Amino acid sequence: MSKVHEGKSFALLRTVVDTTIAAILVVIVFQMMLFITDRISHGRQYGANEKGFEHVDFINFYMAGKIAASSERKRIYDAELEQQVYNEIIAPAKTYEHCFYHYPPYVFLIAEPFTLLNLDHAFEAFDFGTAAAGLAGLLLLMRGNKDLGMYDYVLILVAALGIFPSLDNLRDGQFAWAFAALFAFYFWAFVKKRDALAGLCLGMMAIKPHYLLFLMVGALIGRRYKLIVVALSVVLALCLSSAISFGPDSVLSYPALLRKMESSDSSVLLVPERMICLRGPLSLFISREACLAIGIVTFLFGLLLVAYYWFLAQVRKSIPLEWAMALTIMVLLIASPHTLVYDATVIVVAAALTLKSARLTRMFESGPASFKIWNFLLLMYPILSWVIMIFVPKIVAALLDPRFQSVFAVNGSSFGLTSFPCYLLLHIALLVSGSIYVLSGAAKVDLQSPLSNKAQAN
């Protein structure tokens, strides 16, 4: 058989393998969407029939909007009022556990327009709207990566929806896809020097203030003062709107309220043992208050590390801006004081910025070992994320003494808590391999993005 014929046969086999993987991911995503659309209505029905009501985070968001639209809006953090409105929303089901809403007061304002729809339609609009915005942001970034083609675009977008954190986010109605959109559009505008848009995106990250701080580091290092002024103006506008709507105390007392909730052992929905940041595994062995203190320290160290990456990208110009952003995302997931599984959805932005191909059959074709490890972990992330949640607890249960079950049990799974440290280890492996790659100087040669290079040249 000639070498040409062998090459064509291998190319055909590679296409079959990649297409099969893409088809599997499409099926997963389709099934995921069917599951999500019925989640809330089924939960209310089961609760009414005394089969147990399953909480969905979006109900809290919807509850926040209902309170913001009511005459009781001055009491947004009142426990009794939140419990009352929550039960009114989920009727005929009922819960006696207080599902405290710990987001900043301006999120209540953001939630208010969604109450114009009924709960089910609001849930679907939020999920599909944020996911669509996130996918649009990814596509915008990938168009600036000259190594990716149309097939890669489709595969990455489908894989992004199919990772377990994406499912976890969509089935609970969380903000991770909204943040993926904000990260993507922020970076694009940052590179294009469209400071008004970048500042708007950065300011809206105040929904999770630690995200804003991580992403603001790059603007500070680059002396993008107009961008920073716009971002701070957005935050100020959000705070003033909240103070006018809910009273000044809703803004001024929020930090103390959040700290009390994060360190309390009685918070129903706060389970730090399920976090995938450094704080998570520590919560298995020490108090929540001590873990929160450690989480704040790791957060500060994380800011310093992120500053170093952006210094290399903007001052020394020794690494592409794409890699500074991608590694910032990895540090954010690891060093934040509050990171849950669905938050890892934003890793898709790092993939869109740094991958040279979405084909598993090409993951080892070029670059040093550190880059190949980075590629392998990102391309395998859709599979690894499901393996971690489904199979790790079963494997650990087979290996560990049953007496440890009480330590690692959660949500009816005997060793369910063992999944979450695996996410942390996976993200650390990505951070280490990516850091070794950029610090070796290979990234400057291997990734020549028109988007990044034009900005760095200026």
SSE blueprint and pairings:
Layout: H1 3-37, H2 39-48, H3 57-68, H4 79-90, H5 105-111, H6 119-142, H7 150-162, H8 164-172, H9 176-191, H10 195-204, H11 209-221, H12 225-246, H13 248-252, H14 254-263, H15 279-282, H16 288-314, H17 321-335, H18 347-354, H19 369-379, H20 381-390, H21 392-399, H22 405-408, H23 419-439, H24 442-446, H25 450-457
Could you list some keywords that capture this structure?
mainly alpha; 458 residues; single chain
Question: How would you sum up this structure, described in words?
Answer:
- With 458 residues, this protein is mainly alpha-helical.
- Helices cover 70% and strands 0% of the residues.
- The protein contains 25 helices and no strands.
- The protein has helices at residues 3-37, 39-48, 57-68, 79-90, 105-111, 119-142, 150-162, 164-172, 176-191, 195-204, 209-221, 225-246, 248-252, 254-263, 279-282, 288-314, 321-335, 347-354, 369-379, 381-390, 392-399, 405-408, 419-439, 442-446, 450-457.
- Helix 11 (209-221) packs antiparallel against helix 17, helix 16 runs antiparallel to helix 17 and helix 20 (381-390) runs antiparallel to helix 23.
- The longest helix has 35 residues, at 3-37.
- Residues 42-51 have low confidence and may be disordered.
Order of helices and strands: HHHHHHHHHHHHHHHHHHHHHHHHH
Number of helices: 25
Kindly estimate the percentage of residues that lie in beta strands according to DSSP: under 5%
**Helix percentage:** 55-70%
The CA-CA distance between the termini, in Å, is: 53 Å
Q: Give a quick account of the main beta sheet: strands, pairing sense, barrel closure.
A: none
Number-wise, the strands total 0
Assign an overall shape. Answer: globular
Rg from C-alpha positions? 23 Å
Helical/strand content category:
mainly alpha
Low-confidence stretches: 42-51
Average pLDDT: 83
